Write a sequence for this structure.
């Protein structure tokens, strides 16, 4: 049987219990309110960010649609998606490809300077008929040099040179008298070198090189297709002038900012012409 607790001990415990702080209901309510407010703030902040992203995306699309050719590209993309399917037969692809070709007529130049536009036109060139490819070449007439200097437009030139032999002469003619400026351009240099190396006949290569010999050799038909040796034989009084022109051209393409040009075949030809005749000066 337990002994009763002394009076003094019971009194001390009673005093301690009275001194202990009681848990406030108001404090509990305040904590809940703060937590709810924090959750609401987080939700609002997340919602605002999502809305800002949506508005930014819509504004970007609106600005893109205001650019030349953007509307037509958005319109033809479903047709393009259908045409580029690799599992289609020629007969299955013919109808949508014809619609795509007709929709793009008159818009090739402005479309080819864009990434998606360039890919769309390349699809037409890849799967289209000879007549469709020739129509594209005719529409691009006068614009090939500008396209060669564009990061996206340059691809269509080599595609057309490869797939449409009947249009090569016209494309090559547009680069005559513009060879040096194209060689110094980071995009166009690879285009003109491909044209020179892969698609030019001997006479066409000679004509392209006349730009380095002097302006008069590009203007008169008497020099068409002639090599440097033929020109010097016909015009011995101009030998020194020609070699001086060659030296300046070689110095230009071998300058510090143009060191990447030494890999091009047309530059090899230029250096060879100069080295063979430099003793004339």
């Amino acid at each position: 049987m337990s002994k009763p607790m002394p009076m003094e001990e019971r009194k001390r415990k009673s005093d301690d219990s009275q001194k202990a702080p009681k848990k406030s209901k108001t404090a509990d309510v305040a904590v809940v309110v703060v937590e709810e407010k924090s959750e609401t703030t987080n939700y609002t902040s997340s919602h605002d960010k999502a809305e800002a992203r949506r508005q930014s995306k819509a504004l970007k699309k609106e600005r893109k649609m205001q650019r030349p050719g953007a509307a037509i590209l958005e319109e033809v993309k479903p047709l393009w998606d259908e045409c580029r399917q690799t599992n289609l037969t020629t007969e299955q692809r013919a109808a949508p490809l014809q619609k795509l070709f007709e929709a793009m007529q008159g818009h090739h130049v402005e479309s080819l300077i864009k990434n998606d536009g360039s890919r769309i036109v390349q699809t037409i060139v890849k799967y289209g008929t000879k007549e469709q490819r020739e129509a594209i070449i005719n529409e691009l007439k006068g614009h090939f040099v500008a396209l060669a200097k564009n990061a996206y437009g340059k691809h269509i030139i080599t595609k057309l040179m490869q797939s449409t032999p009947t249009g090569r002469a016209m494309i090559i003619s547009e680069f005559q008298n513009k060879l040096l400026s194209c060689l110094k351009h980071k995009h166009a240099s690879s285009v003109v070198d491909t044209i020179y190396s892969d698609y030019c006949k001997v006479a066409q290569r000679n004509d392209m090189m006349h730009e380095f010999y002097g302006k008069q050799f590009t203007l008169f038909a008497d020099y068409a297709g002639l090599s440097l040796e033929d020109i010097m034989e016909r015009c011995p009084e101009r030998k020194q002038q020609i070699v001086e022109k060659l030296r300046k051209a070689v110095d230009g393409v071998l300058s510090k900012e143009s060191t990447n040009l030494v890999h091009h075949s047309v530059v090899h030809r230029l250096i060879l012409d100069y080295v063979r005749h430099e003793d004339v000066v």
